[in-house]
Amino acid sequence: MGAQRGRDILLKISDGGAGFVTLAGVRASRIDLRSASVDATGADSPDAWRELLAGAGVKTARVSGRGVFRDAASDARMRAVFFAGETPVWQLVLPDFGILEGAFQITELSWSGAHDGEAEFSVALESAGALSFGAV
User: Fold this and answer.
1) Domain assignments of the chain as residue spans, ordered by start
2) pTM of the entire predicted model
């Protein structure tokens, strides 16, 4: 796989039906997948080496992005989801790699701007259930 353009990573939120709305103008995004370890080391562990219990740790995903809104629809959808505390389905599109899909909660939502620039937003998402992955 060759180098990929960062701008091609897309954050999409469910439109409340069967479709998705792409968050407009995302300039920077990050997706972190984590799996906590569960220490199963005991007195009989070989040479006192730590042993981990396979498949027992909690898995989480954190997504963050920042950019500018191009339209009122994506801004309104994110505000509504945040204030209602909803956990809608999101799609995280990674070109030439795949699509992560699942429920996420918006845990941070902020807006900023300078007097000589456009208004920007920042968003952070935390996984709220199992994620699926489909290769593209």
Assistant:
1) 6-36+55-135
2) 0.83
